[in-house]
Design brief:
The chain has ten helices and 15 strands. With 396 residues, the chain is an alpha+beta fold.
Length: 396
């Protein structure tokens, strides 16, 4: 059965999107420590009040439940997932905010509040899309699945656990803020800890040529800066260039003693196709150039987020392009997000074509006075709904 897509798009309630965004922002979900439970309860209760099928997912943490909801099809079409995370970063210092962080303030066409952009406005869009399709009283060949995930801000396994539990599909749209650009790739990152250990000596007793951990650190840091310069020259059509930066340093115990131990973290951003094993080998090669008879050097891999990309030939990208033009009146732009997201879980863990696509400027996320444009929320909702409809029903 072919449906009137335009009729459904026009049925989207703009007022409800704004109202839900306001209600979601008013439920603080700062991570750390991760307080998604009240938000998850609101999402589940609201969807159920509309007659939508929902389910709790208590893994990986029963105190931080996740929500999955369906608009089921006949089974003859694909399953499309619309995903948003419930957690936000903390609000920071209240005096840095012009408006209350956990109360939406609407001003000059914008909604201000912690999570308005990242990404409770997106959650509101997903909920209204589910409501719109449900109330239309139609059954499409494919199934739409909503995922309300925990823990994205701290790289916790919310979406990954959903996929491991069998909540999978054929396409996924992660509604991270992209300024309505299509983000088919996600730059990865690998973190390593380097520890330098040498003799700690009182500065007044140290010989002029005494071994000095901080001099060793400075030499290594210089080589890492050169390594950063080399890899930053690499380019990728869908992703920002790679990088290497020292992000956290701990050293010394007293102001009058030569440092005996220095620990620092290396943040290495990776292009699709790179691996953490490759990065580890490259870092080890740099450190090997700085052998010292009295200073021990150790490098330890900590964690990584996988770099991924969806093929530009994917039907998901084609349908998004179509709807950006026909529904949004926007010329489609393919863009490489500089941030990581749960897109990597769909691609790396489950081989599901996925993109970042959402309303809002990512540069205001995690900042005081975070905001999203109301007009962009509405355009995003219409484009995503149009894309979902096109994917769920077979072409004529």
């Amino acid at each position: 059965m072919t449906i009137n897509k335009q009729t459904l798009i026009e049925a989207l309630s703009e007022e409800l999107i704004v109202e839900l965004t306001s209600q979601l922002v008013a439920i603080p979900t700062p991570n750390p420590p991760g307080q998604e439970k009240a938000c998850a309860e609101f999402i589940k209760t609201t969807l159920e009040s509309w007659g939508i099928e929902t389910e709790w997912v208590l893994e990986p943490d029963p105190e931080r439940p996740q929500v999955v909801a369906w608009q089921r099809g006949t089974g003859s079409g694909p399953t499309v997932i619309i995903n948003a995370h419930m957690d936000t970063v903390g609000a920071g210092r209240r005096e840095d905010w012009q408006f209350p962080p956990f109360q939406v303030t609407r001003q000059n066409g914008r909604l201000y509040g912690r999570g308005a952009c990242d990404m409770k406005g997106s959650m509101a869009i997903n909920m209204v899309i589910m409501k719109t399709l449900h109330e239309a009283g139609i059954t499409l060949p494919g199934t739409l699945m909503l995922q309300a995930a925990m823990g994205e801000e701290m790289d916790e396994p919310g979406t990954r656990t959903l996929l491991q539990q069998g909540y999978t599909g054929d396409y996924a749209i992660v509604l991270e803020p992209t300024d309505l650009r299509i983000g088919p790739a996600s730059r990865g990152v690998a973190w390593h800890k380097v520890t330098l250990t040498g003799p700690g000596v009182h500065c007044g007793l140290a010989a002029p040529d005494a071994s000095d951990v901080m001099i060793q650190f400075a030499r290594i840091a210089t080589d890492l800066a050169e390594y950063h310069r080399r890899i930053a020259a690499q380019t990728h059509p869908l992703s920002p260039s790679p990088s290497c930066r020292i992000t956290d340093v701990h050293a010394g115990e007293a102001h009058n003693s030569i440092v005996g131990r220095c620990e620092f973290i290396i943040d290495r951003r990776m292009l699709p196709g790179e691996s953490y094993q490759q990065v580890t080998a490259e870092l080890q090669a740099i450190l090997a150039q700085h052998q010292h008879p009295h200073i021990e050097t150790q490098v330890e891999f900590i964690e990584w987020n996988e770099p991924v990309e969806t093929s530009l030939d994917s039907p998901l990208i084609a349908r998004l392009k179509d709807n950006l033009k026909s529904v949004g009146g926007i010329e489609p732009e393919i863009w490489g997000p500089p941030y990581g997201s749960d897109v990597r879980n769909f691609l790396y863990d489950a081989a599901i074509p996925a993109v970042n696509f959402g309303a809002g400027d990512y540069r205001v996320c995690h900042q005081p006075n975070e905001f999203v444009e109301v007009a962009d929320l509405i355009t995003c909702a219409r484009v995503v709904l149009g894309t979902v409809i096109d994917l769920l029903q077979p072409a004529e």
